[in-house]
Known about the structure:
The structure is a homodimer of 162-residue chains. Chain A is mainly α. Chain A has a domain at 5-87 and 133-160: Arc Repressor Mutant, subunit A, CATH 1.10.10. Helix content of chain A is 54%, strand content 5%. Chain A is built from seven helices and two strands. The first copy, chain A, has helices spanning 5-18, 28-35, 39-51, 76-84, 113-130, 134-144, 147-161; strands spanning 55-58, 64-67. The first copy, chain A, has a two-stranded antiparallel sheet with strand order 1-2. The mean pLDDT of chain A is 92. At the A-B interface, helix 1, helix 2, helix 5, helix 6 and helix 7 of A face helix 1, helix 2, helix 5, helix 6 and helix 7 of B. The complex binds iron/sulfur cluster (2 copies). Chain A binds a DNA duplex (30 and 30 nucleotides) through residues 2, 4-6, 27-29, 38-41, 43-44, 46-47, 50, 57-65.
Amino acid sequence: MKLNEGIEWAVHCCSILASLPPGMALPARKLAEFFDLPEHYLAKHMQSLSQQGLVSSSKGPGGGYRLGRPATEIALLDIVLAIDGPAPHFRCTEIRRKGPSGVDDKCYGKPCGIARAMWRAETAWRDELGKVSLEEIRHTGLEETPHEQLEKSLAWFGDALK
Amino acid sequence: MKLNEGIEWAVHCCSILASLPPGMALPARKLAEFFDLPEHYLAKHMQSLSQQGLVSSSKGPGGGYRLGRPATEIALLDIVLAIDGPAPHFRCTEIRRKGPSGVDDKCYGKPCGIARAMWRAETAWRDELGKVSLEEIRHTGLEETPHEQLEKSLAWFGDALK
DNA sequence: ATAATAACGGATATAACATATCCGTTATAA
DNA sequence: TTATAACGGATATGTTATATCCGTTATTAT
Ligand code: SF4
Ligand code: SF4
């Protein structure tokens, strides 16, 4: 199993948006250019974020994306779910009731212990992602980005926003 | 993202093997029949379990699979990893160093905060799966299986093992 | 007004991966 | 000797992820 690559892209983009001066917006085209990503495909992911309200969009020249709410109120989990969708990773197909020993569907109430254990693990995963705010991501990112790159980025965004 | 369906199959099969009388073995053919699964594909998954030592196999008539060690010493995590493989679900592609602001690779030491957060969540997931033993799965399964199905299963396996 | 920008949704095309089958080989028990 | 069964490799099929393309609408700048 492999997680959608778009998750990585989306988190990076949100982190950039979180550092944007208030009132400013960045179009998908610029974000794609900055990370060297396929423009139209990234745009699709940005639209997913927009549908979830994580970012707000504005059309036309000077338009683009900005955060939909403060970075302190966006969890890593929100971004992951926006891209990955809400479906649980483990989906039981009820094989217990198949085959020669299966009995009537009515006899099976709740999902079995296997499914419950898998879902517990998934809940632990989500909980952990829920604890991390975009603001933390942004802050850590800023601290750990090489100085030289920070300067180049600032200059580049300066041009882009002009 | 969707987890391999084989995980569900494999856990169910291991749970059956855990209830097998000592010394007995079940061939993949019988397991597939019992759960109404594609025989050859299930066989592939059983081979994965075998490679990891979770089950031991014996060839020839009367052969098949049995547990490779006591059910108390097999974790749900072991089975999941045997089928799903050891690779982490989140794989960062280092997009931070791409694009116009990227600098030399030497400047990036450890993985960034995004990757670390994603991996922390995955660790939480694995930890949760590591806490569940196959013996618990088996026990819970036995308790929650409808009476009628238990009887049918016992009869069916009685014939199969004869 | 007009032209350029940009989000948006839908329709593709392509690549990657999961699912499933098939085959030949080896080992082993009846 | 025959039948069973695991094993590994090759292949086929289906489904999902990845990526592009198009037409439309909204908005800004000229
Ligand atoms: S609910 Fe449990 S027993 Fe039923 S198919 Fe899902 S995992 Fe198997
Ligand atoms: S290590 Fe972090 S910054 Fe680098 S590509 Fe992975 S997620 Fe992005």
